[in-house]
Design brief:
By secondary structure, this protein is mainly α. The chain has one domain: MFS general substrate transporter like domains (Growth Hormone, Chain: A, Up-down Bundle), CATH 1.20.1250.20. α2 runs antiparallel to α10, α6 packs across α10 and α14 runs parallel beside α21.
């Protein structure tokens, strides 16, 4: 009966043009991003020859600018509501990905490393790194207003990333630059979708799917004072510390370190790249499934307990990779990425809409989750890159797992219970 209800719910979702628009947007964006981002670290080390410390510096530059832009993008999107003006501009810049990497980024990194890293961080942050959470914030806002499940829509993004990661491995072995040009092509498809598929312009769609209470909330645009006021929220600062000591390592571990670590288990660079693309695709495909399941888990266990479970999974995953010494074992442990990522993305968003004012949900999400993680990456990327150069990947992973353990203890005491200080949208509504 449960599965029958789920099937009916899915069919109903597919009839919702706002759900379709959000899902297609996620597929195209995450495919166009994942096709190159999933191999960015491998490209920097194996094709460009940069050290762990240099790669850490590049990631730090990216994070520094991204954290500023995330606040700007979040503030603008809260003012725009469901309008896509900002995102249309960003996607237009994504069209330049292939030319930028081929004729600008690589030559600059080779001639002047720090200048190249800085210029690269400007483009990558403006066009991609600060854009991803903006898409997520907009989709979450639209899900509340137009009657669809955000997690189900976001799952299609993970599915797109999974397909991209699989394709990237084969393209990378043919010609590393192909992954960037394919990214440009999918940016074009995304831009066309956003410009011409606009269900919000059709009154019949609004009459059928729009939640009038959410529409009324949208009319109450937050002031700039309201937006800046998020920095005065003590409870938000507690979450920021929690995220710095936990979700930070999604990038530091998963993107900055793990790809090269895993590929070194294999005899040749090409076989390692192919194996990594398959593993990356499998874990993100599983992530897309978990995106649909985690909302049900939250309804049963609550948001706070779900986040604590996510922390336990993160400790096992990172610490396990530091202990296991064969590629099969590492692969199995790495697949825990799927529930962990889905939990953090969905449960943190729900935590913010539960305990904070939903009018500034984009800003709160950016500051409390995405910007906090970027700050953590600035703090940890270069030191951990240098630590890897000195003690190796696996010992570094054990240090990271230890930090996440500290974060778990901290979270147990600071995360609010689901019935405490409900200032936003209560559970079950």
């Amino acid at each position: 009966m449960i599965w029958g209800d789920k099937i009916m719910e899915k069919k109903k979702s597919l009839q919702n043009p706002f759900y379709l628009e959000s899902s297609l947007t996620f597929i195209l964006f995450f495919f166009g991003w994942g096709i190159w981002w999933s191999f960015f670290q491998i490209w920097l080390t194996t094709k460009q020859g940069f050290s762990g410390a240099q790669v850490g510096t590049i990631y730090s530059f990216d994070s520094a600018l991204t954290l500023v832009l995330m606040f700007v993008y979040g503030s603008i999107q809260d003012k725009l509501g469901i309008k896509k003006t900002l995102l249309n501009l960003c996607v237009f810049l994504e069209l330049l990905l292939g030319p930028f990497f081929t004729w600008v980024y690589v030559p600059m990194l080779k001639s002047n490393f720090y200048l190249g890293a800085f210029i690269g961080s400007i483009y990558l942050s403006v066009a991609y790194l600060a854009v991803s959470p903006t898409f997520e914030a907009l989709a979450e806002r639209m899900s509340r207003r137009f009657s669809f499940e955000y997690g189900q829509s976001r799952a299609w993004g993970s599915f797109g990333y999974a397909i991209a990661a699989l394709a990237a491995g084969f393209l990378f072995n043919i010609n590393p630059y192909l992954i960037f040009w394919v990214g440009s092509f999918f940016a074009l498809l995304l831009l066309l979708l956003m410009l011409f598929f606009k269900p919000e312009n059709k009154q019949v769609s609004l009459d059928k799917y729009e939640v009038k209470e959410e529409e009324a909330k949208e009319e109450e645009k937050p002031s700039f004072k309201d937006i800046l006021g998020v920095f005065k929220l003590v409870e938000l600062w507690k979450i920021i510390i929690f995220i710095i000591l936990s979700w930070t390592f999604y990038t530091v571990f998963d993107q900055q370190m793990f790809p090269e670590f895993f590929t070194k288990f294999f005899g040749t660079a090409s076989s390692g790249a192919a194996a990594y693309s398959i593993l990356n695709s499998a874990e993100v495909f599983l992530e897309s499934i978990m995106m649909g399941l985690i909302p049900m888990m939250m309804r049963k266990t609550g948001v706070r307990k779900t986040l604590l479970i996510g922390l336990a999974i993160m400790i096992i995953r990172i610490g396990g990779c530091g202990l296991v010494t064969n590629p099969l074992g590492v692969s199995v442990i790495k697949l825990l990425h799927a529930p962990e990522t889905a939990i953090f993305i969905l449960a943190m968003f729900r935590y913010f809409t539960l305990h904070f004012d939903t009018r500034i949900s984009a800003t709160v999400y950016m500051v409390g989750f995405q910007i906090a993680a970027q700050v953590g990456q600035i703090i940890f990327s270069t030191p951990f890159g240098a630590l890897h150069d000195k003690i190796g990947y696996q010992n570094t992973f054990l240090v990271v797992a230890g930090i996440v353990c500290v974060s778990a203890i901290y979270a147990f005491f600071v995360l609010k219970k689901d019935d405490e200080d409900v200032l936003g949208q209560p559970l079950g509504d």
